Amino acid sequence: MDTPFLGLRYCHLSLYFYQLTLSAFPQLPISMRLSSACFALLLTVLCPAASGVAAERAPRAETKTHWRLETDKEGIKVYSRVSDDSRFKEIKVHCEMPGTLSQLVAMYSDVDQYPYVISNTKSARLLRRVSETELFYYLETQMPTPVANRDVAMRLQFSYDAASQQLLISTTHAAGLVPPQPGRVRVPYWSGLWTVRPLTPNRLQVDYTFRVDPGGELPTWLVNMVAPVAPYRSFVQLRRALQLPRYQGRSFAFLSGPAATTSQR
Predict the structure, then answer these.
(1) Locate the START domain: which residues (predicted)?
(2) At what angle do helices 229-242 and 6-24 cross, to 10 degrees?
(3) Could you give the CA distance from residue 215 to residue 189 in angstroms, rounded to a whole number?
(4) What pLDDT does 144 receive?
(5) What is the domain count for the chain?
(6) Is residue 149 situated within a structural domain?
(7) Among 17, 22, 21, 58, CA closest to 41
(8) Is the pLDDT of residue 173 over 70?
(9) What band does 262 get if pLDDT is binned at 50, 70 and 90?
(10) Domain containing residue 241
(11) Does 146 sit behind a cis peptide bond, omega within 30 degrees of 0 on the bond before it?
(12) Highest-scoring range by mean pLDDT, 5-9, 50-54, 108-112, 118-122
């Protein structure tokens, strides 16, 4: 359970917002850094009083059927939109990156390496590998003190259509696989879908959409505000990770065709 000391909690969350801003945009000019710091301070002052109202207030005017661009940097575009059936925003990432389908499958099958690839991941472990195309894993996400870390058991599935050369990677929460862990808040809902296709033998186009309910007592507006930041950071890490030697030259029976396995040398 999150701490009951709301003033302290929002102070830390405001600082977390500021830290996320600087880590995602390290080249911000000093004027924008100061503006971000002032905004974080304003959150610290106003959040405890306003949270009860803001958390329940209807989302700001946004078109529910259209994506809103949140970040466009280094070829990585992050979008968000309000969903009719959830108070939390749905996030979409669109980008291109060097690599092959086999490299991507190899990396996401390598659960123990998630802390080095997925932003804010404290730990990850494989629970069960059903086949090349299905596995279950446990993930713990690092949260800023004093907010409790989040954890979740996940089911990951790969599917490949040879005709279109399109790879789908789906991730959904899997309830009941891991008992509640002390000091952690269980994520009650997680759903993500990767749609990946090769543009050239060594270049991929990736569209990733996901929606998460982080559980606990975090205010909706704050979760929605910081939600687009972590995906950008994760995709920066992902691009680098795909080029690691451990993911080169791998092959998988369910993938077929040169577009799935060709790799730059």
Answers:
(1) 67-243
(2) 40
(3) 8
(4) 87
(5) 1
(6) yes
(7) 17
(8) yes
(9) low
(10) 61-261
(11) yes
(12) 108-112
Q: How far is CA 93 from CA 113, 178, 207, in A?
A: 21, 29, 6
Q: Which residue has the tokens 């899997």?
A: 174
Residue 131: CATH number of its domain: 3.30.530.20
Main-chain phi, psi angles of 193, to 5 degrees: -145, 125
| Residue 187 domain-assigned (yes or no) | yes
What is the number of other CB atoms lying within 10 angstroms of the CB of residue 253?
Answer: 8
The listed range with the strongest mean pLDDT (6-10, 24-28, 194-198) is: 194-198
- Residue 52 pLDDT: 40
| Cα diameter, the chain | 59
Rounded Cα distance between 217 and 34, Å, is 29
**Does the pTM of the predicted model rise above 0.70?**
yes
Average pLDDT value over all residues in the chain: 81
Cβ contact 260:250 at 8 Å = no
Q: Judge whether residue 211 has pLDDT over 60.
A: yes
Pairing mode of beta strands 189-200, 121-131: unpaired
Inside any domain, residue 53 = no
> What per-residue string of b and e applies to 142-177 under the rule 16 or more CB within 10 Å gives b?
ebbeebbbbbbbbbbebebeeeebebebebebbeee
In a domain, residue 12? The reply is no
Give φ, ψ of 103 to 5 degrees. -60, -40
What count of Cα atoms within 13 Å lies in the side-chain half-sphere of residue 74? 12
